[in-house]
Design a protein that fits this description.
single chain; 64 residues; 2 strands
Length: 64
């Protein structure tokens, strides 16, 4: 279950109903959050540009 908070409240959805691109964004956000609290984070991501635009992937890499 994934919960999204917004100004009007929150929305909960099962993870499997997210699109492949939304799942990629979710995993990217999780890795960025984990790297903020842990010195070392390993993430092996095969072909991240399959569901995300290259510009979105570059933002993810820069954030790390």
């Amino acid at each position: 279950m994934v919960q999204f908070k917004h100004p009007q409240g929150s929305t909960s959805l099962p993870f499997n109903v997210l699109s492949d691109g939304e799942k990629c964004f979710f995993i990217a956000a999780l890795v960025i959050a984990a790297s903020a609290v842990s010195k070392t984070v390993f993430c092996f991501w095969d072909e991240p540009d399959n569901y995300l635009a290259l510009s979105e992937v570059s933002h993810f890499i820069i954030a790390l």
